Amino acid sequence: MRRLDLFRRPTLAAVAATATLTLAACGGSSAGAGTTTTQADEADCPGEVLDVVVSVSQWGAVVEQLGGDCTNVTTVLASSAVDPHDYEPTTADIAAFSDAELVVLNGADYDHWAADAVATLDPAPAVVDGAEVVGVEGEEHAEGEEHAEEEHAEEEHGHGGVNPHLWYSPEYVQDVAAAVTAQLSELSPDAADHFAEQAEAWETDLQPYLDELAALETAAAGRSYAATESVFQYTAEAIGLTDATPEGYRDAASNETDPAPGDVAAFEAALTDGSVDVLVYNSQTEGSVPEQLRAAAEAADVPVVEVTESAPDGESSFVSWQLSQLQQLSNALGGGQ
Ligand SMILES: [Zn+2]
């Protein structure tokens, strides 16, 4: 599935609760990254205001909410127009990292460019690495070992065996959020109560998402899905929806190699012989093969659920982004209204 028309992705405008400064226009970050910065409300912050840098938008919205009035949050890759794997940080990005008290990364080699940037900093900022927090590790690169570009170019959007889409796991999302709150409280102890309130508000906001997942566990029992890409895997596992994606295709997709014609044919057969209840379709990475599979699903009356790697354009809430996808799935499984 060589992604010739990679990333016909809609650009993502992160609209944070507080003042948002989009740096793209002022040349602060490379064109297309759409770097955003939210401003703290110093007057309302009971402690020291912290500068926080988040590598990718999937976590940016979460950190903004957890930081509340006491953080200036810069999200480097806030646009879905750029593949996180291919992203090369600009000097402005590196500078943002160097001014940060806290850096939040996804890890698992998903945003290796950010980990590389932080590794060069002395003194180093505090770091929350999502993959480390939840215990899934991408390929380790020995300290100082150069990342041979072709190594990553080869993989393109591949994930080399580890599924780095941590934000699709309800458990991982909560673990990473808790780690961020703990770090913020350590760095600004006088604002610890404020962060505790923000964490509580975040958990309250998350509840409809958790409730929908709980309801889906019933609807998903004994049902299966097949996916054009592995982004949704952790959510499917959380609700007990069986992955019926033909193995050959799944391996090719996760290693970012073109699925063999036989793999595509096997996928189409699974869509027409009733062994797949739902097609999970990543609408941010289109291409001839995914479109062919979508057509086969529609011809066989297999419902298609669209998911995205990062929040779609204009969607600044993690919860509403995820919830709308879960409701689609609930309807597809016949659980919805
Ligand atoms: Zn991915």
| Overall pLDDT metric | 86
Number of helical elements: 12
Report the principal-axis shape: globular
Strand line-up of the largest beta sheet = 1-2-4-3-5-6
User: What is the CATH top level name of the largest domain?
Assistant: Alpha Beta
Bound small molecules, which ones?
zinc ion
Question: How many domain modules?
Answer: 2
Rg from Cα: 20 Å
What would CATH call the homologous superfamily of the largest domain?
A: Nitrogenase molybdenum iron protein domain
Q: End-to-end distance, in Å?
A: 36 Å
Number of strands: 10
Per DSSP, what share of the residues sits in E-state strands of 2 or more residues? 5-15%
SSE topology:
Layout: E1 20-22, E2 36-38, E3 50-56, H1 57-67, E4 71-77, H2 91-99, E5 102-105, H3 112-119, E6 126-129, H4 130-134, H5 149-155, H6 170-187, H7 192-220, E7 224-227, H8 233-239, E8 242-243, H9 247-254, H10 261-272, E9 278-282, H11 288-299, E10 304-307, H12 318-332
Zinc ion binds next to loops.
Would you write up a description of this structure?
The protein has 337 residues and is an alpha/beta fold. It has two domains: 193 residues, Rossmann fold, CATH 3.40.50.1980; 124 residues, 3-Layer(aba) Sandwich (Rossmann fold), CATH 3.40.50.1980. Strands 1-2-4-3-5-6 form a six-stranded mixed beta sheet, with helices on both faces. A four-stranded parallel beta sheet has the order 8-7-9-10, with helices on both faces. Helix 3 links the parallel strand 5 and strand 6. Helix 1 packs across helix 6 and helix 1 crosses helix 7. The two termini are 36 Å apart. The N terminus is likely disordered. It binds zinc ion. Zinc ion (ZN) binds next to loops.
